UniProtKB/TrEMBL annotation:
GO cellular component: plasma membrane
Location(s) in or outside the cell: Cell membrane
GO molecular function: pentosyltransferase activity
Residues of the Glycosyltransferase RgtA/B/C/D-like domain: 75-221
Membrane-spanning parts: 21-43, 89-115, 122-139, 195-211, 223-243, 277-294, 315-337, 343-359
Key words, A-Z: Cell membrane, Glycosyltransferase, Membrane, Transferase, Transmembrane, Transmembrane helix
Single GO biological process annotation from the record: lipid biosynthetic process
InterPro entries for the chain: LipidA_mod_glycosyltrf_83, RgtA/B/C-like
Protein name per the record: Unannotated protein
Mode of membrane association: Multi-pass membrane protein
Length: 523
């Protein structure tokens, strides 16, 4: 019989009880994250902002016109063709078009499970699925009518195919053809895929050079050829791409330094710069580092060289893609947005999942996942509570007070796609400075055209077009290049029609895309 007090035995049993409870909770928590994240992909009901509305307007155009519209917009065509077919079946409603990205997002979760299981078994698959399911980045782009979730899915499918192509124990039947197709699809979905494929190709060639056997060298070279051959799909688009590179872009943005490319990516992955997002950035960065350098030895977490082959390949793809992309952006003075990181996002999350799955005890793993889930859901909740655009408020006022035949003018034209969707159908909506179709924004030589426009000429054209009818001016002075002209236009029209009535005040603190609405009645 033991001489130790019973209370000490109970205290000693407490850690094991906690560990047992954590082991029981681990998989239900993973499943809960997956279910909640899947539902959130279809939750947003906010009005579409510029990028979404413009995407839908282009995709809804006749199929033969999409290429020409994109030539003046700045993106490759594949997602727009896919969305065009989706719209033909389900229509252009916000929920309908966003559902396509939601379904693609569910496909990404499935692919994460497949790749994670192959590289680290059920635990890596489960934790990575949980992280991606509640990721502010993945939830956002699974619920926006944009191409970024499709980019992530295609990139991960390409990784899976490449892994099979290089594995000597697996058949390559159809795999090289799949690599060829996916590489072409990536190039036709987003231009940052060029940097991803370049990084991947360089890594494969390095592997071929160091291959220990001729058979492995041949496998590597064949995979590299399949990826390079994917460029054939891009050839018909080269002319449009060259024109876009010369004439479109974001002239108000600055070229991005490599540090900015990395930091903006983490900010987007965490859902912004709020308190919860900052903590989430720190957690993701720490787990990513543990996924790369951590290992458990005798129950203790230790740091060492980068682990097995898949982790080294993931590190190479992430680092080389960022390096090549940042260098190209700097040399071409091109801007960078965190959403472009969708090309490497799934690989980074696999490393984060590896860091989480590699924590030494069930209690630590469950606690870490719970913290990440809470921080992620807090960021997502803040996003769901706020609209990116004030178009909903402006549109509601127009539907309430505008009368058939009234003229609605949007300044700058970037407000047009979102406003036009919500304006009454019996009013005429035009954009400035050309009083053209508000559904589209012509990005060709945008800065030069804005500088060449005359506010007085635009104002005279608006007055002549409206005649004695009411003018509704939707405007914002916060846009670079065009904003000062919109301020001046509002002042000039108000001076000519002194019976100005402000209906909606811009609220830039609340809306990313804010706008004022004033009514100008002829006297």
């Amino acid at each position: 019989m033991s001489s130790r007090p019973e209370s000490l035995n109970a205290e000693e049993r407490t850690p094991s009880r906690i560990a047992g409870l954590a082991s029981v909770v681990e998989w239900p928590l993973i499943a809960l994250c997956a279910v909640v994240g899947s539902v959130l992909r279809f939750a947003p009901a906010s009005p579409m902002w510029l990028d979404e509305a413009l995407t839908v307007n282009i995709a809804a155009a006749p199929l033969a016109e999409i290429g020409g519209l994109l030539r003046r917009d700045g993106h490759p065509p594949l997602y727009y063709f896919v969305l065009h077919g989706w719209i033909e079946i389900f229509g252009t409603g916000a929920g309908a078009v966003r559902a396509l990205s939601g379904i693609v997002g569910l496909g990404l979760l499935a692919m994460v499970a497949v790749v994670g299981r192959r590289h680290g078994g059920p635990r890596l698959a489960g934790f990575t699925v949980a992280i991606v399911a509640v990721s502010p980045f993945a939830v956002r782009y699974s619920s926006e009518a944009r191409m970024y979730e499709l980019v992530s899915l295609l990139a991960l499918v390409g990784w899976w195919l490449l892994d099979r192509a290089l594995d000597p124990a697996r058949s390559r039947r159809g795999v090289l053809a799949g690599l060829w197709l996916v590489s072409g699809a990536l190039l036709l979905t987003h231009y940052w895929a060029m940097f991803l494929l370049a990084a991947t190709g360089l890594g494969i060639l390095w592997s071929a050079w160091r291959a220990p056997t001729p058979a492995q060298r041949r496998r590597s070279l064949e995979a590299a050829v399949a990826i390079a051959a994917g460029g054939v799909w891009f050839v018909p688009w080269v002319s449009a791409f060259a024109y876009q590179a010369a004439h479109t872009g974001t002239p108000w943005a600055k070229a991005s330094r490599p540090t900015r490319v990395v930091s903006e990516s983490f900010v987007d992955w965490a859902g912004g710069t709020g308190p919860e997002a900052v903590l989430l950035i720190a957690a993701l960065a720490a787990l990513l580092a543990m996924g790369l350098f951590g290992r458990v030895h005798e129950g203790r977490l230790e740091l060492g060289p980068v682990g097995d082959g898949w982790r080294r390949r993931a590190l190479w793809i992430i680092g080389a893609t960022f390096a090549i992309g940042a260098a190209a952006s700097t040399l071409s003075a091109a801007a960078y947005a965190g959403r472009y990181s969708s090309v490497i996002y799934p690989f980074a999350m696999l490393l984060v999942g590896a860091g989480l799955a590699g924590l030494p005890t069930p209690f630590v793993r469950v606690s870490a996942l719970a913290v990440i889930a809470m921080l992620s859901l807090a960021s997502i909740g803040l996003a769901l509570k706020s609209d990116r655009t004030q178009a909903g408020e402006v549109g509601a006022e127009l539907r309430r007070a505008a009368r058939p035949g009234d003229l609605v003018v949007v300044c700058p034209d970037q407000l047009g796609p979102a406003i036009q969707r919500l304006a009454p159908t019996d009013v005429r909506v035009v954009r400035t400075p050309d009083l053209g179709d508000p559904r589209f924004v012509d990005w060709v030589d945008y800065a030069d055209r804005q500088a060449a426009s005359s506010v007085s000429v635009v104002a005279d054209r608006i007055l002549a077009t409206a005649g004695t009818g009411t003018i509704w001016l939707v405007w914002s002075g916060s846009y670079r290049l065009a904003g000062p002209q919109c301020d001046e236009l509002a002042g000039r029209l108000s001076a000519i029609r002194p019976g100005t009535s402000p209906e909606v005040q811009a609220d830039p603190a609340k809306y990313f895309e804010s706008a004022s609405l004033i009514r100008l009645v002829a006297r």
